[in-house]
Amino acid sequence: MDDDRIENEALGWLLALADPRFEKWEELTAWLAISPEHARIFNMLQIREAALLEELALQSQTRPRKAPDVEVANDDRPWASRGFLVKFAASVAVLAVGLWITTEHHLKDGPGSAWKEIRTAAGGRNKLQMADGSRVELNGASAVTVAPGGREARLLTGQAFFTVSHNPSQPFKVIAGDTVITDLGTEFDVVRETGQVTVRVVQGEVGVSISGRRSVRLGAGQGAVVSGGSVSTFTASRATTTAWRQGRLHFEDAPMDMVIVQIERTTGLHVQNAPQSAARRFTGTLQLDGPPDALRRRIALLLGVKVNDPPLEAEAKEASAIRDARR
Amino acid sequence: MTEYEGVASSRLAQILVSNNGKIRAYLLARGAGDVVDDVLQEMWIRASRIDRPVEPSPLSYLFRMAEHLLLDIWRQGNRRSMREAQWSEAYQELHEVSAESHVLANQKVGIVVGRLAAMGARVEHVFRRYRLDGVEQRLIAEELGVSLSTVEKDLRKAYTALLKVGRDFDAV
Question: Which pTM does this prediction carry?
């Protein structure tokens, strides 16, 4: 059936178009121009896709968090033969941007075991459990790699919370650029940004060394910022440190640009800092749950900044607004 | 919103002007003959306000803008924009979808969502990560610890679920 072939091709195009980095517009134009049927079928599918996406977005807003356990049949032979057991629990995120994923990777030593890399997009989350029971939780816009045998992780960028099993004979190490955080059994948060690493300890004690030289010990409620080879310590309340993992953000006298970076990382929204408020500092709690519009308004109100939709959604919305105004 | 005073020419607007032909050809190929000029006019106004860098490239950004504007027009049920002989089916569908009280429309979308869910948590998850979160397929594969081709197959399955409902409901 000719229609079947066209539908499959149209499907392929829609799939490709879904990638934000799609650039084959002229090829698409050529395909569409082959016959009116091509365009008709393509348009129908795209409109249907748009309706589906709206429906899914609505569901994300109203559904409470759920975590069904699902055994995933992995098509991949190499992974299966290494004895990896992967269980997925998917639940809808409190923010209508992105899904909460809990993946429990159980890592074993073995020939050819590689470091495992986990990444999240802004507004996303991920979790990882190691053979010794230690856990890593990743905020949005972050990436971490973990050693196959456990007890060592590298924070490549962004924010991760570590819950480390106690093992005095083998300390757990987190490497963030030049900064090495050593820990015997504790809970702590690490943020790695360009030129700066921030550590906050919730429980237990960690040692922070920079380029193997300076070293600082941090206990519960203490934090340190490592920047340009120097360290400065500060008080890191439990509320501030654990907030992002509990659906809110908490700041105590934090500079505006830091607040904005944390909001963007955790929610995936774009926040514009007005020049006049750039030097301000902010203290307060921001709840992250509820519909995205309410969240945007709350952020704008609380901080006196402009919060944008991702660029293209904003374009479409403004197009509608202008059209409505014209009627 | 008063950030922009008046309409000034920006680099993006200049790129729009130089590539007018390509974007027009795309819109015509989509079947938007009636509204091509409206869309291009709208794009000129919007492009003129944009001074920041855009992703993935200025031309691709403009094509996306054209596509969004087109979909927007169609979803508003603007019959003027479609040649009825060809688009009546599509119009029917989107008109149903935009009227939220329409039971058939909700049933259709609900069925598609149900079908997506029936394909398994991983397929649904991969679809959402790709389509809603905008994560690259390669990165989704890394997050899940599966191969890229597994992710590609999952997406293909999800999109096929999207396709099937239409067949069941097509008017004879």
Answer: 0.45
